[in-house]
Amino acid sequence: MSEEEDVIAELQALVEREVEDTPGRHPLRTDRCPPLPAFDSRREGWTENQRQHASTCPYCQRTIALSWRIACPDLPQLAEYRSDPEGFPAKLAMGLHLERDGCQRCELVMRSWCFRKQITWLTLVHAGQKKMDELRVLAQGVAVAYHARPTEQFAGPGEPFEARGASENGELTVTLLEDTASNRFELVVESRDRANAGKIVQVELISNENRWEVEVTLGDRGEYGSSGARTLGEISGEFRDIFRGCAIVARWKDEAPLAEA
């Protein structure tokens, strides 16, 4: 089974669990609803009629929210919602995602400096000074990782803690991991492109109580691309608080359009 088929099967299972003993057709589904495979996290390829229908359809809104359990909404969608909640076409779905499902990852990401710049850029899009496609290209280069494991599980026996996320364009990967050998938290940033050696990546670590920023300079790894690492501290004390339910947002420091927007 392909990755796309896996996602569709998972979404189908979520939809079926919404109503016990779901019949062949979900009771809220209408003839105008797009087919289930169309409900990916961004709903690309939808017609304008489908989008207009989905904005007021309970089934479509619930299904969009369920799709976000598999893959959270991207930065531009979160920025659109935060800048105009009432006008956001998936308003009900986002409410279900943030409130009913309690997505801490998205809540934390929306506190990041990177997200605030997305909001600024979106304002310029609405003013006709920038294009939405440009915003999406910039967002595709941001890597986000999240791990909600309780603090008590960071230390002691069991699988070492690791939170890993990659940018949508695949150019940037960020990993926060527990190095049990050195008893320290390590932040590792990687790029598949060797040409990025020497570039600086800005990383934000955001939890409910803390926000921390660090910079990582990438080094040349030959055929493996480029990478860099920072030791953040021992697996104890204040660092456990910082990394409790932490979201990690990584972006290129010299991403001028985003930084200047």
Layout of secondary structure:
Layout: H1 3-18, H2 48-54, H3 58-70, H4 75-83, H5 91-100, H6 104-109, H7 113-126, H8 132-139, E1 143-147, E2 162-166, E3 173-179, E4 184-191, E5 200-206, E6 211-217, E7 219-220, E8 226-234, H9 238-243, E9 246-252, H10 256-260
Antiparallel strand pairs: 1-9, 2-3, 3-4, 4-8, 5-6, 5-9, 7-8
Describe the structure.
By secondary structure, the chain is of the alpha+beta class. It folds into 2 domains: 3-103, no CATH class; 113-260, Apoptosis, Tumor Necrosis Factor Receptor Associated Protein 2, Chain A. It has 10 helices and 9 strands. It has helices at residues 3-18, 48-54, 58-70, 75-83, 91-100, 104-109, 113-126, 132-139, 238-243, 256-260; strands spanning 143-147, 162-166, 173-179, 184-191, 200-206, 211-217, 219-220, 226-234, 246-252. The strands form 2 sheets. It has a 5-stranded antiparallel beta sheet, with no helix packed on it. The longest helix has 16 residues, at 3-18. It starts with a helix and ends with a helix.
